[in-house]
Amino acid sequence: MIVPFQKMSGAGNTFIVADNRWLPDDADLAILAPLMCSEQQGHGGADGFMAIGPANDASHPMDFTMAYFNRDGSTGMMCGNGGRCAVRFAADHGFVANPDSIAFSNAGVIYRAQLTERGVLVRFPNPRLVRLHQSFALFGTNQPYYFVDVGTPHAILLIEDLAGEQRTHLSELDVATWGEAVRHHEAFWPGGANANFVQAKGDRSGILLRTFERGVEAETGACGTGAIASAIVAARQYGLPAPVAVTTTSGATLRVGFDVDEAGEIQNVFLEGDATVVLSGELELA
After folding, report:
1. What is the pTM of this model?
2. Per annotation, catalytic residue among 86, 155, 223, 269
3. What are the pLDDT digits (tens) for 45-85?
4. Which of left, alpha, beta for 10 (phi over 0: left; psi -120 to 50: alpha)?
5. Domains defined for the chain, CATH in brackets
6. Is the pLDDT of residue 225 over 70?
7. CA angle at residue 246 from 196 to 216, to 5 degrees?
8. Is 85 designated active site?
9. Closest to 226 (Cα-Cα) out of 204, 209, 238
10. Counting Cβ atoms within 10 Å, is residue 59 exposed (0-12), middle (13-18) or buried (19+)?
11. Which of 79, 157, 228, 232 is catalytic?
């Protein structure tokens, strides 16, 4: 089976993207995803796989559908950086009618988007859940954390709150160890959560973010939904105004915007950043 694809990057988060019409009708995408993302492929590996297809829901007019899979084949969640790459791919391949008003669906949720000077802006539904000032037992101590579900569940830990750590900069943190412990913590059973580690910039111009992603089971160059969740927490804890500039592990900066209504509810969430094509090619799969 020959599958044309593009490897794309959203702020350093990498994806293999294919037109669903190029795939066999009976293809099991959950099984295909690990093969497409494998580091043994000529493209060098990726964090996730997306299949982009035409929309056929007459009751909800849309430009395209997005089916997202983590590198391990897990699905059913939203990927913010993947969403931006999906929009860019769809616009480049004739799915989009109006680049200023784009609609697409993933996992049954409709998203709005537009192409901008910074790349792609995707608008998100209100967070499903925001829990502030939580704590759990971790490494034998009581660890404060925050929890935000924006279509994907995220635990957020502020560097100044990390129990037993005397770190002055986020770059010094052992994210592999801390991330795996948080990602698999019983507080988030059975599905687990992404683990985000946040530090405010000294000039208060935004935040630094490192994310250990479930489904990838490692730190990634960036995490879009993690940026949204972390920005929401950082705005409240550090007093930062929206939009919040989020500098990711890759060094790329994402913009996260939102409003807070009189009841304190988060609304009008958007994520903006780059979405670029790294390479194009074909994969031959048995």
Report:
1. 0.94
2. 223
3. 999 999 999 998 777 889 999 999 999 999 989 999 999 99
4. beta
5. 2-125+275-279 (3.10.310.10), 129-268 (3.10.310.10)
6. yes
7. 40
8. no
9. 209
10. exposed
11. 79
